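Q: Joint fold for the lines below.
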Amino acid sequence: MLRFILTRVSLIIPTFLGITLLAFFLIRLVPGDPIETLAGERGIDPARHEQLLKEYGLDKPIFVQYGIYLSRVLQGDLGKSMITQEPVLNEFKALFPATVELAFCAILFALIIGLPAGIIAALRRNSIFDHGVMGISLTGYSMPIFWWGLILILVFSVQFDLTPVSGRIDVLYYIEPTTGFLLIDTLLSEEEGAFRSAVEHLILPTIVLGTVPLAVIARMTRSAMLEVLGEDYIRTAKAKGLSRFRIVALHALRNALIPVITVIGLQIGVLFTGAILTETIFSWPGVGKWLIDAIFRRDYPVLQGGALLLGVVVMSVNLLVDLAYGLINPRIRHTR
Amino acid sequence: MTTETMEAPAVAAPTATPPHPLREFWGYFSANHGAVAGLVIIVTVVLVALLADVIAPHDPNITNTALALKPPFWQDGGSIAYPLGTDPIGRDILSRMIHGARLSLLIGIAVVTISIALGTVLGLVAGFFRGMTEIFIMRLMDIILTLPSLLLAIVIVAVLGPGLMNAMLAVALVILPHYVRLARAAVITETSKDYVTAARVSGAGTVRLMFKEVLPNCTAPLIVQASLGISTAILDAAALGFLGLGAQPPSPEWGTMLADAREFVLRAWWVVTFPGLAILITVLAFNLLGDGLRDALDPKLKR
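A: Joint structure:
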């Protein structure tokens, strides 16, 4: 087991180096002088230019520059935002909980609907329900979620006035961030109606962000269940006279869940991408919106550092999924 | 014993002539109603795109502020001259969508063509040469796959500068690993087969082996992936357009149309509804087609 964990963990080192290389060289592709890019539109006098060039090590050969960059990154120094002058890492830490909260609710939403839908579709293969679930999930899979968000706003916010259009909580409330997760913070604050407001603000973004994972989970659960239901041990269980519920819940589902868990893990990476679009539509103050804002403000350190951090987060999630997979499936652990 | 086994196929062969591969393919494909529906939609979109100049009722770029935000014809204040209404600066939405079909298809096809061409060559090279070349190429592809696709595309476009060309390049790069992996896997399974050895023994060079012998035998998965790739490309390019990083206004690209109309969503539902519906239907059609192709072309899944 230890050997398995160590191999998997060591595999992320080249990936991490690759991501830093990408982040390092992509910024060099920005047309123009890096110092002038960093200084922004106000320009910079030549003496200061010289000084900064030395400070950032830009007068050294490129691979030395990469070494400097890498050692800074490893010490948690991702530069400062050109707009706010705040360290990129601090800004990321402040905004990341909002994205995690949204992503967590979205994956929960996708699981609560997707798993049962997939299971029932598999049990009633070729029924109307099955065809319906498959049709809807392929539509969900093809959904341009930026449009889906606008349509939900049109229906639920404009037409029926049920949900708020943007933000995380009503402007009436000021919640001191203790955990950064508003659902928890509002409960802790005991302010009247704050929790309700936070929930209302979460509903539409959750649906929008959860739609694609929901579709993928439903499809995957169905096909995994179908495969497992055809196995010999299911026939044995039936022959033993076990109840249908026992067969499905204990024998089939547990085995069918293994590939489903991998897919859920891979969806978490997709979720952070979806968060960029979802947060933009709903003005959700998370890292996705922060990155897009950085692009339009030409805040390159934020873009570089933020993309690197998101990449590292996704990489770590993938690693955890890999390890969890080995934990629940001994066959994986012992091969190789 | 031996005579029996020798005779059996000789008797069976003339009675059961296998159907022509295309016929067999169509048999499997047409049994899947979803796939046929997808194909019909795609053919329609292609025709609309080809005939855009003829069938679009108006010029997609002519503005007329007097006609701004007219609703579709079935609502009060709408007129049949502008069947799906007009946008905030009085352009006909239907005409813009028709011309947008041209752009979206072009994006999908161009992106996938670039990606397949590059991906197949990289995959073939990795599969044939193995060793360091393979490790380098596959590690690079793993890194691209690790990063969420849209995030990578956004960063690339942010650096290269917004625009349709850069958006297409970014999306092509992001979907590249799928083709590289497919081609490499196919090469590795195919090269151990007898026909490749036979060709090698008769003196075929590596390039000939790569493109004349192995490549034709791994086209099926590539075709399936191409269909699914077009849907990803259209979706991602539209997302980039929506974020203001893809095609720039006044281009009638569907995602860009949505971005243009976003602030009017509370007043005029039609400016956002129709372009998005066009994206959804087109992407869905390519996904349906891809699923159908996979079932029809992949012998492992044939039941």
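Q: Anything notable?
A: Chain A has a mean pLDDT of 84. Chain A touches chain B at residues 14-15, 18-19, 22, 26-27, 29-31, 135, 138-139, 141-144, 146-148, 150-151, 153-154, 158, 269-270, 272-274, 276-277, 280, 291-292, 295-296, 303, 307, 310-311, 314-315, 318 (CB under 8 Å).
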